[in-house]
Write a structure and sequence with these properties.
Strands 1, 2, 3, 4, 5, 6, 7, 8 and 9 form a 9-stranded antiparallel sheet that branches. The longest helix has 19 residues. The mean pLDDT is 91. It contains 10 helices and 9 strands. By secondary structure, it is an alpha+beta fold. Helix 1 packs antiparallel against helix 2 and helix 3 crosses helix 10. The two termini are 12 Å apart.
Length: 288
């Protein structure tokens, strides 16, 4: 998988001054556009679109300093419809406008070319299983919250703390399918997984029963799920598990992510910050 992903990045690099279609990059990587965006974001720590923008502005910066083309020619070459749009993007990355950079020879920011490789340490194993599920419903309380990559998500903490305990108690009694109990369900995430982008967060259960008043229903179609388990300090162990799934498990297994909610079941150890967690991710087998 990583070898194919690197080939798609080489294709991108050769076309920084052309229109780059994510569909073509996904074809070269032999995967879906959705999984390509997810994999790249997990491995690079930034969305694919942001990497492309930064690489273009890096190369454009070198051309600005070289002085062989006009600023408008450079702007158009790297996909900007006007000199003003180019100047705003240039300043946002480099901290200085293109005209001033050319005039003063200012130091600019560089986004290095990326390539990925898998480092196998062999000092731990990942516990997982793959299951097929019929369609099911998540019933719970819903909020729109920002995505946080590391550390506590204060928006989620505040939302859960503010939940009506009577509704939460009623929901817990409705849980009748795996995974059981009150769950954290994330849906409608930005494909690039950029920090701060929004997602739908459900504090609820999987149930065949009706929805109590004041709750929302999320219908989930049938499909395949990869189920991962971990134990450790919360939320660090869970965030590290999510990272390891995309940087180690997906590159080593014949599956790719597909659109759908991510489901987390967490059980805290009394009196400690330790937790046992089970993470359900929607997947499908790679073709070919």
């Amino acid at each position: 998988m990583l070898e194919r992903l690197n080939r798609s990045l080489e294709h991108l690099e050769d076309r920084l001054d052309q229109r780059v279609e994510t569909a073509e990059l996904a074809r070269i990587a032999a995967t879906s556009e959705y999984h390509l965006r997810r994999m790249f974001s997990a491995l690079a720590g930034m969305p694919l679109s942001e990497y492309l923008r930064r690489r273009r502005l890096t190369v454009a910066g070198a051309e600005v300093l070289a002085g062989r083309r006009s600023l408008l020619e450079i702007a158009v070459r790297y996909g900007y419809g006007s000199g003003e749009a180019f100047a705003r993007a240039f300043r946002a990355m480099h901290g200085v406008g293109p005209a001033e950079a050319r005039r003063t020879g200012a130091a600019l920011v560089s986004q290095p070319r990326l390539s990925f490789r898998l480092t196998v340490e062999g000092n731990s194993s990942m516990r997982y299983r793959v299951v097929d599920r019929q369609d099911f419903s998540v019933v719970g309380l819903k909020a729109r919250v920002p995505l946080v990559h590391a550390g506590p998500n204060q928006a989620i903490i505040d939302f859960v703390r503010g939940a009506d305990p009577r509704i939460v108690e009623a929901l817990e009694k409705l849980s009748d399918q795996e995974p059981g109990g009150i769950l954290a369900v994330c849906d409608d995430l930005d494909p690039g997984r950029a920090e701060g982008t929004g997602l739908d967060y459900y504090h609820g259960v999987i149930t065949s029963a009706g929805a109590p008043e004041g709750t929302t229903v999320l219908r989930v179609p049938a499909g395949t799920w990869a189920v991962f388990t971990t134990s450790g300090p919360a939320p660090e162990a869970i965030q590290e598990l999510w990272r390891d799934v995309f940087t180690q498990w997906f590159p080593s297994n014949p599956y790719r992510s597909r659109p759908g909610p991510e489901i987390l079941r967490t059980r805290m150890s009394p009196g400690t910050a330790e937790a046992d967690a089970e993470l359900w991710l929607p997947v499908e087998r790679e073709r070919g």
